[in-house]
C-alpha cells in the first residue's frame, strides 16, 4: 500500500508547483449550499476545562462527570502524523467512510461531493449502514485503495479506535468527522471537525430555560442508546440546566428510539398522564420522529403550554417552528458538516496547518430567525 | 443424456453454495476494481470471522428444526462480558471463557424453554432476545465498553499463513472442526436425525431433548465465542450491534439458507453455511469496490436469496408434480 | 370437570385475563391510570401496532407463521401515500392500499404456490423492497409538498368528537370487522382449515392458494394502512419508518394466544394482545422504569405468559384426551 | 408378558393381557380398531415406561422403560405409522441411534453403507442406494426400509404393526418369505394385521383382543377366520358381501381415452346412477392418479370426460365439488381429516365451504344432518366436540366418510376407504356406501383389498401399469378375489414391451 502512495506522491510532485498554485487559487469562500448560505462556515476551537481527578465520582448532573465524553480530545498526546505533501489538493483522492444512511447523512454526502468537486478532488463514499462489522471491512477496503486521505465517520465512538489505529498504521492521514471518536482514537487523527454536540445541547438548554423562566420541570428523550449523541444531547441539557436553572427538575429520561414517532408519542402521553401540570418542558434529541411524537402527544392532551425544544434542523423542525409548535431547534447543518472535512483536507494538501479539532458554531433556531434557515437541508 | 443431466442437476444442488460463491467471486474478480488482490481477500476472510463463527451454532439449531432469534443478543452479552472481564482481570482468556460460559448458560435456558416449557423456539428466543438486550443495555447504560489493550487486535490481524489473517484462520479451523463433528461423528449425525424426525429419533433411543438443549447451548457457545473474539478484536463491545441498520440475524438466516439449511430441520451443513457467509461478505465487499452503496448491497442480497429459495422451491414443485410417473408412458406420448 | 372448565376459560380468554391483571396493577400504581385520557392514550399508542397485528394475525392464523416483509411494506406505503397525494385524498388512499395489497399478492402467490418457508421468503422480499426504496429515494426524508396536505396530516391527528383518535377507531373497527369475518364467514372458516392442515384443506376442495394469498394481501394492506398513518404523523416518508414493527406485531399476535402453526386463536384475542402490550408499556413508564429495564420486564412477562397459555393448553388436552 | 395394563389418564387401553411367544413362531394379534394392539406393542417396545405387569424374556424378568432397553433386550418394532426421517439418508435411517462407530465417536461410513446394503438386499431393495434420502422414496419403499431398520438391530423378538398396509400383494408376498426366513432363524414374531387372509397365511398362533382385553389365543390350525371375526367383534358377521340389487340409471361420468402423460393412458369407462365401479390394480398402477384427474386435482392431457352428459375439460377440484363430486382421499391423516379439530367441524367442513354459496357459514343448519350421519355410521364416541385425532382409525375413517356423505354427492370416489380399518367398521362403511348408491348416486371405489373391490362393485376396471386391461362385469365374469388377482398380475409383460 505504501508503494502506491509514494508513487502517486511523486507524480503530483512532477506536476510541479503549478498544481499547488492552482489549488490555492480555488475560490471556495463563495460556495453556497442549497439555501444560498455559505457552504463553508466559521468554526471554533473550544476551551477545555481542567480534567477532574475522577470524573465518575461526580454526580451525573455535574458537567465534569461527562468530561471524557465531552472533551475526548483533551490531554491526548497525538501520535506523529504523516507530513503534508504540500503539492496542492487538485487531483487528490479521498475516501469517505460513512457511518450509515439517514436523511441527515444524505445531505452530508451531497455536500462532501460538492465540496470535493470545488477543490478538484475525487471522493469515494462507503457506507457501513450502522454496522461495525461492515465498517471494519470498509476500513480495510479503504486502506487497500490507498487514497490520499480518509474522512472517517465512526459507527461507534469506542470501536473507532481499532479502525483509526489500522488506518494510522497504514500511513493514511485521517480526518474524523460528524461523530467524535473516544480519547484513544483522537491520537491517531490528523484532525477532527463536526458539530459541537455538547455545546448545541447546552445552548438549547439555555434558550429553553430562558423561555421557561428558569423554573418548571422537564423530561428528556434521548437519542439511540450507546451513541455519542445519546450522552451529549441528554446530559448536555441536564448538566447545563443544573448549572443555570437549579430550580428545574428532571422528571424522567426515556429512550423510545428514533425510528417511530408512535413510540415517542406513547412515552410523552404517559408522561403527561403521570406528571400532569408538573411537566413544563420536553427536550428531544432529534427533530423528526421525536419532535413529531412529542408535539402530537401534547396536542392530543391539549397541552399547548408545554415547551418543546429539540436538537438539529430537519425540515420537520423548521416547519413546526414556523407553525409555533416547536419552541426552538438548533442549527446543525449537515451540508456544512459534510463540507468541512473536505476543506480541512484541501488545506492540508496545500501545506497549510490545520487545527487538531474544530467545531461548527451552534445556533438556536426559533420563530424569529427560522426564515434564515429555509429551505431546510433535509 | 437424461441421466447425465439429472446427475449434473443433483451435483449442482448439492454444491449450490460453492457454485454461487464461485460465481460471485469470479464476477467480482473480473469486474470489481481492487477486489482480487491478496490484501482484499484477506479483508474479506477476516470480515467473515464474526458471522462465520456465529453461523455454526445457528446452523446446528436450524438442523434441529428450530430457530434462535436470541443469537444477536448473545453476541452482545458475550462481547460486553468479555470486555468487562478483560477490564477486571487483564486477561483475554478469562474474558473469552466467561463469555462462552455465559453463552452456554443462556443456550441451556433457551433449550429448556423449548423442550420443557414446550414454547415454540421462535417465540421463546424472541422473548429471550428482548430480555438479554435489555440486560446488556442496562448494565452499562448502553455505552460501549472498551479497553486499550490491542494485543488481541494485533494478534488477530497478523497472518500466520499468507493472505489469511489469524481471525479468519481461527474461524476456518473452528468451522472445519465442527463440520467434521457434525458430519463424521455419530453424535453429530444424531442432530440431523432429531431435526429430521423427532419421533423416530426417540424410538431409536436418542433423547431429543438432550440434543435440542445441546444445540441451543452450542449456539450460545459459538455466538458467545464469535461475539467475544470480535469484541476483543475491536477492543470494544457495543451494547447492541444490531440496533440500527440490518440486524446480523438477517445475515445469519440468509447465509444458512444459501448454504442449504432449511427451517424445517434435518438439513444443513456447517461448511456450507460458512460459505454462505463468505458469499454474502464477498458480495458486500465487491459491491463496495464497485462504489455501490449499501442500498444496492441489501437489494442484491435480497435478490440472491429470493432466486435461491425460489429455484429450490420450483424444482421441488416440479419434482412433486412428476413423482410416481412412469417414464415409458412418457415415451409413448411423445411418439 | 370443574378444572377443565377453568382451564378452558383460561385458554380462551387468557389474554384478557392479563389485560385485567394489568388494569388492576395500573389502578394500584397510579390514581391517574383510570382517567379517560390515559385510557385513550393507551389505545392511541397501540393503534398502529394493532392495525398491523390484525393483518399479521391473518397470516399466522392461516398457518403461514409470520410476515417479515411488513417493515418494507410500511416504508413502501408511506412513500406511495406521499407521492400520490397530489391526485387527491381518495386516490391516494386507494394507491397506498394497492401498494400493500400488491406486495401481499406477490408474497402470497409465491409462498402459496411453491410452499417456500414464509420466514425466509418474506425476509428476502423485505431486503429487496428496502433496497429498492433506498436505491430510488436514497435515505432522504420525502416530505409532503403537493396536494391536500392539511387533510393528509389530519389522518393521524383527527379525533372524533375531539377525543377519540381516528387510528383507534380504525383499529377497533378493523378488528371487529375482521373478527366477525374470520369467525363467521366462509372465507374465515377456510382460513382456519388451511391453518389446521393445508393438505386436508386442499382435499376438502378449498382453493388453498387463494386463501393463503388472501391472508398475505390482508397483511400487506394492514401494513399499508399503518404506513399511511405513520407517514401522516411524520408528514414525510423515509426508508426506516417500519423498522422493528414486525417483531412488535409478532409479539402481539403471540400474546393473543395464536400459535405459529396456525388454526388457533381469534382476532379478538389480538386486540387483547395489543392491549396487554400497551398497558404494560404504560404502567412501566408510569412507574418511571428505565427504557432498558422495560425491555427486561417485557421479555420476562412475554415468556411467562406464553409458557402459561401453553401450559393450560396441554393440561386441557390431557384432560380431554 | 403377564397382566399388562396401560392407562391413558383414566382410560384403560390395555387391560390385563398375558401372551406367550416362543422362538421361531409367528404370533398374530387381531382386534378391531382401537382394541389396543398398537398400545400393547408399544409397551413391549419400551415406549410406555409407565405400564403395569411383568414381562420376561427367556425367563428373566425385564423392565422395559425405554426404547433403548427394549432394543438391548432384542426387541425391534416396525411402527404402524412410518417413523423415518425424510431429509436423512436411507443408511442413516436404518442405523438411527445405532450408527457404526470407529475410534469411539467417529462414524464408520464404509461400514454404514455396506451394512445398509446388506439389509436393503434382505428386503428386496438392493436397487436403492444407501445414500439416497428417504424423502425421495415411494411409500412402499419407505415401508420396506422400515423393515430393514428393524432387522438391523438383529432382534430376537420382532414386532410388526400392520407392515403390509402400504405394500402391494407382491411386496407382501416378499415380506412373508422374509418372515419365513426369520422364523427359521429362531426369531419370535408378533404380527398385527387387519387382513385375516394374511394372518392365516403367516401366523402360528392368533390372539384376539377386544376393548383392551384378551379374548382368545388359538393355534391357527384350530380356528377359522369366522371364529376370529366372532372373537373380534363379539358377534357373527354373515353375508359379508351380500348381493345387492342394482337398478342402473343414466350415465353419471364417462371417460373417453383419458391420458395423463407419464401416469395413465387411454382410460375409457362410464359409471351410471345406482352403480359402483371398482378400480383394481397393483400398488403404483396409477389408480390414485386416475381418481385425482377425474376430480380435477390433477389436469389430464388427452381424452374427454363427460359428467352428466356435459363435457368437462380441466375443471378445478373446487368446481367438481360444486358439481357434487366427492373424493375421499387415500391418506386420512394427511389428506382427509383435521386431526386437531373436533368431529363436528370436520364433518361439516366440505359442505359448508365448498357447496354453500352464501358469504357466511351456516353450520347450525347442518347440526341434525351431522347427528344423523354419526348415528348411521355409529361413530364412537358420538360427541361432536371430540377431537378427531383422539379417535381410533376406524372411527376416523367413519368421520371422513360422513364428511363427504354430508355433501350428498352424485358421484362418490373412494380411494382406499377401509385401509387399516377393522371388520366391524368396514362393514358399516360398506353399508353406508351401498345405501348412498341405492339412492340413485354413483360410486367409484379404489381398494387394495381385492375382496372388497370384488364384493362391492358392479363392474371392475382393471389397471395395469397405467393402462386399462379391460372392465369386468360382475354378472358375466367371475369377479372373485382370485380371478381379479390373476388378472391384475397376469401376463402384463406384453404391455410393458409395447
Ligand atoms: N410423493 C411420491 N414420491 C415418490 N413416489 C411416489 C409418490 N407418490 C406416489 N409415488 C409412486 O408413484 C406410483 C403411483 O402411485 P399411486 O399412488 O398412483 O399408485 P396407486 O395405483 O394409487 O396405488 P396405491 O394407492 O395402492 O399406492 C407408485 O409407484 C408410488 O409409489
Ligand atoms: N397417546 C394416547 N393417548 C390417549 N389415548 C390413546 C393414545 N394412544 C392410543 N390411545 C387410545 O388407546 C386405544 C387403543 O389404541 P391402539 O392404537 O392400541 O389401537 P389398535 O388396536 O392398534 O387400533 P388400530 O387397528 O386402529 O391400529 C384407542 O382407543 C386409542 O384411542
Ligand atoms: Mg394400531
Ligand atoms: Mg393409491
TrEMBL record, chain B:
Keywords: Cell membrane, Membrane, Transmembrane, Transmembrane helix
Membrane topology, record value: Multi-pass membrane protein
GO cellular component: plasma membrane
Primary subcellular site in the record, as a coarse category: membrane
A molecular-function term among this protein's GO annotations: transmembrane transporter activity
Xref: CDD domains: TM_PBP1_transp_AraH_like
Localisation: Cell membrane
Cleaved signal peptide residues: none
InterPro entries documented for this protein: ABC_transp_permease (IPR001851)
Pfam families xrefs: BPD_transp_2
Membrane-crossing segments per the record: 16-35, 41-62, 69-86, 92-114, 121-140, 160-182, 211-236, 242-263, 270-287, 299-317
UniProt cross-references to PANTHER family, sorted A to Z: ABC TRANSPORTER PERMEASE PROTEIN YPHD-RELATED-RELATED (PTHR32196)
Protein's name according to its UniProt entry: ABC transporter permease
The species this protein was found in: Anaerosacchariphilus hominis
Automatic annotation (TrEMBL), chain C:
Annotated localization: Cell membrane
Positions of transmembrane segments: 13-30, 42-61, 73-106, 118-144, 164-182, 211-233, 267-286, 292-311
Top-level taxon of origin: Bacteria
InterPro entries referenced in this protein's UniProt entry, alphabetically: ABC_transp_permease (IPR001851)
Primary location class: membrane
Entry membrane topology: Multi-pass membrane protein
Molecular function GO labels: transmembrane transporter activity
Record flagged with keyword Cell membrane: yes
Name the UniProt record assigns to this protein: ABC transporter permease
Species annotation: Anaerosacchariphilus hominis
Source lineage: Bacteria, Bacillati, Bacillota, Clostridia, Lachnospirales
Automatic annotation (TrEMBL), chain D:
Domain of life: Bacteria
Gene3D superfamilies per UniProt: P-loop containing nucleotide triphosphate hydrolases
CDD domains in alphabetical order: ABC_Carb_Monos_I, ABC_Carb_Monos_II
Any Pfam family the entry gives: ABC_tran
Keywords annotated in UniProt: ATP-binding, Cell membrane, Membrane, Nucleotide-binding, Repeat, Sugar transport, Translocase, Transport
A single GO molecular function term of this UniProt record: ATP binding
Chain ranges of the ABC transporter domain: 1-236, 243-490
Protein name (database record): Sugar ABC transporter ATP-binding protein
Amino acid at each position: 500500500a505504501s508503494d502506491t502512495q509514494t508513487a502517486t506522491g511523486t507524480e503530483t510532485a512532477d506536476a510541479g508547483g503549478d498544481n499547488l498554485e492552482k489549488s490555492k487559487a480555488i475560490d471556495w469562500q463563495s460556495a453556497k449550499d442549497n439555501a444560498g448560505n455559505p457552504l463553508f462556515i466559521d468554526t471554533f476551537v473550544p476551551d477545555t476545562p481542567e480534567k477532574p481527578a475522577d470524573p465518575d465520582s461526580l454526580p451525573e448532573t455535574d458537567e465534569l462527570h461527562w468530561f471524557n465524553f465531552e472533551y475526548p480530545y483533551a490531554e491526548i498526546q497525538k501520535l506523529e502524523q504523516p507530513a503534508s505533501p504540500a503539492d496542492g489538493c487538485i487531483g487528490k483522492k479521498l475516501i469517505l467512510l460513512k457511518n450509515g444512511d439517514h436523511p441527515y447523512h444524505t445531505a452530508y454526502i451531497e455536500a462532501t461531493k460538492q465540496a470535493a468537486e470545488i477543490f478538484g478532488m475525487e471522493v469515494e463514499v462507503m457506507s457501513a449502514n450502522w454496522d461495525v462489522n461492515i465498517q471494519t471491512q470498509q476500513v480495510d477496503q479503504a486502506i487497500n485503495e490507498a487514497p490520499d486521505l480518509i474522512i472517517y465517520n465512526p459507527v461507534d465512538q469506542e470501536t473507532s479506535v481499532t479502525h483509526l489505529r489500522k488506518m494510522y498504521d497504514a500511513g493514511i492521514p485521517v480526518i474524523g468527522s460528524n461523530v467524535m471518536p473516544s480519547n484513544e482514537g483522537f491520537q491517531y487523527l490528523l484532525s477532527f471537525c463536526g458539530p459541537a454536540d455538547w455545546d448545541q445541547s447546552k445552548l438549547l438548554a439555555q434558550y429553553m430555560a430562558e423561555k421557561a423562566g428558569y423554573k418548571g420541570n422537564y423530561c428528556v428523550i434521548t437519542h439511540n442508546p450507546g451513541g455519542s449523541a445519546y450522552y451529549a444531547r441528554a446530559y448536555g441539557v441536564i448538566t447545563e440546566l443544573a448549572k443555570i436553572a437549579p430550580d428545574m427538575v428532571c422528571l424522567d429520561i426515556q429512550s423510545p428510539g428514533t425510528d417511530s414517532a408512535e413510540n415517542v408519542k406513547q412515552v410523552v402521553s404517559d408522561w403527561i398522564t403521570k406528571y400532569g401540570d408538573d411537566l413544563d418542558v420536553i427536550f428531544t434529541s432529534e427533530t423528526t420522529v421525536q419532535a413529531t411524537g412529542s408535539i402530537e402527544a401534547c396536542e392530543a392532551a391539549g397541552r399547548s403550554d408545554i415547551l418543546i425544544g429539540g436538537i438539529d434542523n430537519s425540515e420537520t423542525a423548521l416547519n413546526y417552528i414556523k407553525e409555533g409548535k416547536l419552541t426552538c431547534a438548533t442549527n446543525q447543518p449537515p451540508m456544512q458538516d459534510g463540507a468541512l472535512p473536505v476543506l480541512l483536507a484541501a488545506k492540508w494538501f496545500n501545506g497549510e496547518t490545520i487545527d487538531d479539532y474544530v467545531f461548527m458554531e451552534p445556533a438556536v433556531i426559533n420563530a424569529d430567525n427560522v426564515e434564515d434557515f429555509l429551505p431546510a437541508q433535509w | 443424456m437424461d441421466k447425465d443431466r439429472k446427475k449434473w442437476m443433483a451435483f449442482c444442488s448439492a454444491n449450490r453454495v460453492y457454485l454461487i460463491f464461485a460465481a460471485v467471486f469470479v464476477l467480482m474478480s473480473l469486474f470489481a476494481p481492487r477486489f482480487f488482490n491478496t490484501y482484499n481477500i484477506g479483508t474479506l476472510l477476516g470480515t467473515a470471522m464474526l458471522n462465520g463463527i456465529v453461523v455454526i451454532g445457528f446452523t446446528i439449531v436450524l438442523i434441529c428444526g428450530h430457530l434462535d432469534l436470541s443469537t444477536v443478543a448473545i453476541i452482545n452479552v458475550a462481547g460486553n462480558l468479555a470486555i468487562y472481564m478483560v477490564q477486571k482481570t487483564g486477561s483475554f482468556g478469562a474474558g473469552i471463557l466467561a463469555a462462552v460460559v455465559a453463552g452456554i448458560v443462556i443456550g441451556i435456558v433457551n433449550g429448556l424453554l423449548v423442550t420443557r416449557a414446550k414454547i415454540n423456539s421462535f417465540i421463546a428466543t424472541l422473548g429471550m432476545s428482548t430480555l438479554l438486550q435489555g440486560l446488556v443495555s442496562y448494565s452499562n447504560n448502553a455505552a460501549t465498553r472498551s479497553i486499550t489493550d490491542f494485543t488481541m487486535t494485533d494478534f488477530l490481524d497478523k497472518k500466520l499463513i499468507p493472505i489469511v489473517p489469524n481471525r479468519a484462520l481461527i474461524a476456518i479451523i473452528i468451522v472445519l472442526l465442527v463440520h467434521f463433528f457434525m458430519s463424521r461423528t455419530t453424535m453429530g449425525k444424531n442432530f440431523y436425525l432429531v431435526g429430521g424426525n423427532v419421533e423416530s429419533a426417540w424410538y431409536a433411543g436418542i433423547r431429543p431433548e438432550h440434543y435440542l438443549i445441546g444445540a441451543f447451548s452450542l449456539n450460545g457457545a459459538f455466538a458467545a465465542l464469535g461475539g467475544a473474539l470480535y469484541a476483543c478484536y475491536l477492543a470494544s463491545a457495543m451494547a447492541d450491534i444490531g440496533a440500527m441498520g440490518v440486524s446480523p440475524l438477517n445475515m445469519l438466516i440468509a447465509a444458512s439458507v444459501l448454504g442449504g439449511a432449511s427451517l424445517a430441520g434435518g438439513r444443513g451443513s456447517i461448511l456450507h453455511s460458512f460459505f454462505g457467509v463468505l458469499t454474502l461478505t464477498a458480495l458486500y465487499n465487491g459491491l463496495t469496490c464497485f462504489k455501490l452503496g449499501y442500498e444496492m448491497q441489501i437489494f442484491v442480497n435480497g435478490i440472491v436469496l429470493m432466486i435461491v429459495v425460489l429455484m429450490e422451491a420450483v424444482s421441488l414443485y416440479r419434482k412433486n408434480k412428476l413423482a410416481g410417473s412412469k417414464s415409458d408412458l412418457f415415451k409413448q406420448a411423445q411418439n | 370437570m370443574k378444572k377443565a372448565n377453568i382451564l378452558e376459560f383460561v385458554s380462551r380468554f387468557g389474554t384478557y385475563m392479563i389485560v385485567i391483571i394489568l388494569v388492576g396493577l395500573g389502578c394500584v400504581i397510579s390514581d391517574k391510570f383510570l382517567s379517560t385520557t390515559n385510557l385513550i392514550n393507551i389505545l392511541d399508542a397501540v393503534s398502529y401496532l394493532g392495525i398491523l397485528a390484525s393483518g399479521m394475525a391473518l397470516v399466522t392464523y392461516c398457518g403461514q407463521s409470520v410476515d417479515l416483509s411488513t417493515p418494507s411494506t410500511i416504508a413502501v406505503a408511506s412513500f406511495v401515500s406521499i407521492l400520490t397525494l397530489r391526485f387527491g385524498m381518495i386516490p391516494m388512499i386507494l394507491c397506498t392500499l394497492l401498494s400493500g395489497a400488491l406486495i401481499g399478492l406477490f408474497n402470497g402467490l409465491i409462498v402459496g404456490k411453491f410452499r417456500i418457508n414464509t420466514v425466509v421468503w418474506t425476509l428476502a422480499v423485505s431486503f429487496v423492497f428496502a433496497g429498492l426504496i433506498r436505491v430510488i429515494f436514497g435515505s432522504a426524508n420525502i416530505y409532503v409538498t403537493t396536494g391536500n396536505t392539511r387533510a393528509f396530516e389530519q389522518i393521524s391527528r383527527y379525533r372524533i368528537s375531539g377525543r377519540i383518535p381516528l387510528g383507534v377507531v380504525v383499529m377497533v373497527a378493523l378488528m371487529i370487522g375482521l373478527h366477525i369475518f374470520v369467525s363467521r364467514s366462509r372465507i374465515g372458516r377456510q382460513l382456519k382449515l388451511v391453518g389446521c392442515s393445508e393438505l386436508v384443506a386442499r382435499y376438502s376442495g378449498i382453493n388453498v392458494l387463494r386463501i393463503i394469498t388472501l391472508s398475505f394481501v390482508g397483511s400487506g394492506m394492514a401494513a399499508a394502512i399503518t404506513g399511511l398513518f405513520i407517514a401522516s404523523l411524520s408528514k414525510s416518508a423515509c426508508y426506516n419508518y417500519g423498522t422493528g414493527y414486525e417483531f412488535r406485531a409478532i409479539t402481539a399476535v403471540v400474546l393473543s394466544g395464536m400459535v405459529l402453526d396456525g388454526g388457533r386463536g381469534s382476532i379478538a384475542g389480538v386486540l387483547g394482545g395489543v392491549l396487554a402490550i400497551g398497558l404494560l408499556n404504560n404502567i412501566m413508564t408510569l412507574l418511571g422504569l428505565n427504557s432498558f429495564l422495560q425491555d427486561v420486564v417485557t421479555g420476562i412477562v412475554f415468556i411467562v405468559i406464553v409458557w402459561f397459555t401453553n401450559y393450560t393448553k396441554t393440561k386441557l388436552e390431557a384432560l380431554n384426551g | 408378558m403377564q397382566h399388562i395394563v396401560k392407562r391413558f389418564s383414566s382410560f384403560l387401553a390395555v387391560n390385563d393381557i398375558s401372551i406367550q411367544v416362543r422362538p421361531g413362531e409367528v404370533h398374530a394379534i387381531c382386534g378391531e380398531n382401537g382394541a389396543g394392539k398398537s398400545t400393547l406393542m408399544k409397551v413391549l417396545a419400551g415406549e410406555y415406561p409407565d405400564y403395569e405387569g411383568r414381562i420376561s424374556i427367556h425367563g428373566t424378568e425385564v423392565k422395559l422403560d425405554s426404547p433403548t432397553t427394549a432394543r438391548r433386550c432384542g426387541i425391534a418394532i416396525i411402527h404402524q405409522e412410518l417413523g423415518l426421517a425424510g431429509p436423512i439418508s436411507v443408511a442413516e435411517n436404518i442405523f438411527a441411534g445405532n450408527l457404526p462407530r470407529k475410534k469411539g465417536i467417529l462414524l464408520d461410513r464404509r461400514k454404514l453403507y455396506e451394512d445398509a446394503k446388506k439389509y436393503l438386499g434382505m428386503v428386496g431393495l438392493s436397487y436403492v442406494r444407501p445414500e439416497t434420502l428417504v424423502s425421495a422414496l415411494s411409500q412402499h419403499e419407505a415401508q420396506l426400509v422400515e423393515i430393514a431398520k428393524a432387522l438391523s438391530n438383529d432382534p430376537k423378538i420382532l414386532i410388526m404393526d400392520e407392515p403390509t398396509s402400504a405394500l402391494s400383494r407382491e411386496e407382501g408376498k416378499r415380506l412373508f418369505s422374509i418372515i419365513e426366513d426369520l422364523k427359521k432363524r429362531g426369531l419370535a414374531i408378533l404380527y398385527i394385521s387387519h387382513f385375516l387372509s394374511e394372518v392365516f397365511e403367516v401366523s402360528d398362533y392368533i390372539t384376539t383382543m377386544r376393548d383392551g382385553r384378551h379374548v382368545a389365543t388359538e393355534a391357527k390350525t384350530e380356528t377359522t377366520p369366522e371364529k376370529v371375526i366372532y372373537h373380534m367383534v363379539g358377534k357373527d358377521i354373515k353375508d359379508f358381501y351380500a348381493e345387492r340389487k342394482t337398478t342402473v340409471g343414466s350415465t353419471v361420468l364417462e371417460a373417453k381415452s383419458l391420458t395423463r402423460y407419464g401416469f395413465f393412458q387411454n382410460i375409457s369407462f362410464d359409471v351410471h346412477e345406482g352403480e359402483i365401479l371398482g378400480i383394481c390394480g397393483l400398488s403404483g398402477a396409477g389408480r390414485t392418479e386416475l381418481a385425482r384427474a377425474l376430480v380435477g386435482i390433477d389436469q389430464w392431457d388427452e381424452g374427454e370426460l363427460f359428467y352428466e352428459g356435459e363435457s368437462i375439460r380441466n375443471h378445478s377440484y373446487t368446481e367438481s365439488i360444486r358439481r357434487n363430486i366427492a373424493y375421499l382421499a387415500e391418506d386420512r391423516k394427511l389428506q382427509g381429516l383435521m386431526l386437531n379439530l373436533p368431529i363436528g367441524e370436520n364433518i361439516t367442513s366440505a359442505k359448508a365451504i365448498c357447496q354453500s354459496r352464501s358469504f357466511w357459514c351456516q353450520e347450525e343448519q347442518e347440526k341434525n344432518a351431522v347427528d344423523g350421519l354419526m348415528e348411521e355410521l355409529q361413530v364412537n364416541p358420538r360427541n361432536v366436540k371430540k377431537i378427531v385425532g383422539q379417535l381410533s382409525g376406524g372411527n376416523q375413517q367413519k368421520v371422513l366418510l360422513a364428511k363427504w356423505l354430508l355433501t350428498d354427492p352424485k358421484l362418490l370416489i373412494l380411494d382406499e376407504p377401509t385401509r387399516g380399518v377393522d371388520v366391524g367398521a368396514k362393514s358399516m362403511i360398506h353399508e353406508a356406501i351401498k345405501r348412498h348408491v341405492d339412492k340413485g348416486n354413483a360410486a367409484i371405489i379404489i381398494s387394495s383389498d381385492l375382496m372388497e373391490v370384488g364384493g362391492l362393485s358392479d363392474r371392475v376396471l382393471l389397471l395395469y401399469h397405467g393402462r386399462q386391461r379391460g372392465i369386468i362385469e360382475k354378472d358375466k365374469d367371475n369377479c372373485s378375489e382370485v380371478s381379479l388377482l390373476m388378472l391384475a398380475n397376469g401376463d402384463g409383460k406384453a404391455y410393458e414391451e409395447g
